[in-house]
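During the reporting period the student researcher (J.K.) took over the structure-prediction task from the postdoctoral fellow and processed the backlog of single-chain submissions. One of the processed entries is reproduced below for the supervisory committee.
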Amino acid sequence: MAEKLKIMSLGGLNEIGKNMTVLEYGRDIIVVDCGLGFPEDDMYGIDLVIPDVTYLVKNQNKIRGIFLTHGHEDHIGSLPYVLQQIKAPVHGTRLTLGLVKLKLEEHRILDKCKLVTHEAGETVKAGNFQVEFIHVNHSIADAVAFAIRTPVGTVVMTGDFKIDPTAEDGMIDLGRFGELGRHGVLALLCDSTNVERGGYTANEMVVTEAFDRQFKNCNQRIIVSTFASNAYRLQSLVNVAHKYGRKIAFSGRSMENILKVSTELGYMKVPPKTLVDINQIKSIPKDKLVIVATGSQGEDMSALYRMAYSSHRQVEIQPGDRVILSASAIPGNEKAIGKIVNELYRLGADVVCAKLAELHVSGHACQEELKIIHGLLKPRFFIPVHGEQRHLRTHANLAVQAMGMDPKHVVISDVGRVIELTGRSCKLTGTVPAGMVMVDGSSVGDVGSVVLRDRKHLAQDGMLVVVVNLSAEDGAVVSGPDIITRGFIYVKESEELMGELRAIASAAIARCRRGGARDWAALKAAIKSDLSNYLFKTTRRNPMILPVIMEI
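J.K. obtained the following structure tokens:
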């Protein structure tokens, strides 16, 4: 039987972020993007979420390369972790690999990795695959789509994109998309992030004009928080600051990193004597200074967070400071952003939000732009990607209702599902190992569902430790039971309850001793069961109970 092309998403479906797609044909595999996700509210202590790459580790000898569409965290953030498990060359554009290089240096694995730089228009051979880089517009420079030629047909993956005629690096290459459509496209995997919005995405010039309005006639210090990766937004800020004679300082590690890479590679140009170090700002008059800070999503310990809570070493928010939030809230971050905004108001700042002043535009295509791409490519099969279930379904409906696609030719997949394609068919078949791997500090994958469940339990109800010392000779109680609580009750105000708990633990120990056998597991279970039942009846709470039995 002829080989079939397999497409598997290890992330990026039914979720925002963690984008990773695997294409396999015969003995060859290529990987498109290697992103991370951010933890949900109930993932206590988790720093990052990365894809499960068990399937790639198992098929290490088949991997011909990792191809990156652009340099956002949800597309490159997992690379330092994944490249410690698999070996493969990483292909991307200059800015994308510039950011990857910084990450790999931080993890001290750069010398073990092969990075291959390409320009839009180039084609790379990787086993049975030929991957063509196509220029697109996004909220970061050097973003590309891929036209992947396979033995069964051409697959186009748009990556994150929009259509922006005013883009600094030139408009998306719609002509090349049209050529691909004329030659025939087997399948389209298209970004669905903004599919719920009608019309077209506004262009970056709207934001530049909004900055100009905010800077004009402002005689106070200006603090701007935006996505660090948007070099064009940062360039706009630099240009407007220079126009009004203001110095500009950057605060936040990710902001400093993107500034370093963007200026070194020529994507940003800062006029002489405009940029100042954050440590020198006290000598600059308020009306001659702009501070650009990380923290537009309310991240803990980001530069804006530290300013809002008066813990930033160089910047103290003062009454009259104009704080501009030039970013939209990523779903789930609204509450964190709201807290920072409230604190800024409390300190007397004048806060200007993106929604109210056209200070942010999306980097993702709206419905009319998606229709243009569908119309140019005319794919035989369509697979919506990059979004939650509502985004994928809405995009599928758009393809059927607005673009006339056959519903049988539209496939909505899920993380870990395998799509098999031939020149005439596209269907879901089996599954591969997939899911979330949680990063907690320097530990990768050590925290699983059981540990998270315990952390959630501790966060909700606290814990109670019962310590008992028993005689090694006859099992008699030498001391205790002593009870220690954390996050459950304030002991000094609950002496009566603590006495009851000690009495119940003592009764459980006596009952087990009468049984004769010295089974510590049974003793612990009895203490835990009796205390748990009592606490739930009296307090309607269920703390974690840890009996500790010691022989002396």
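The committee noted the following: The CA atoms of residues 15 and 257 lie 27 Å apart.
J.K. will present the remaining backlog at the next meeting.
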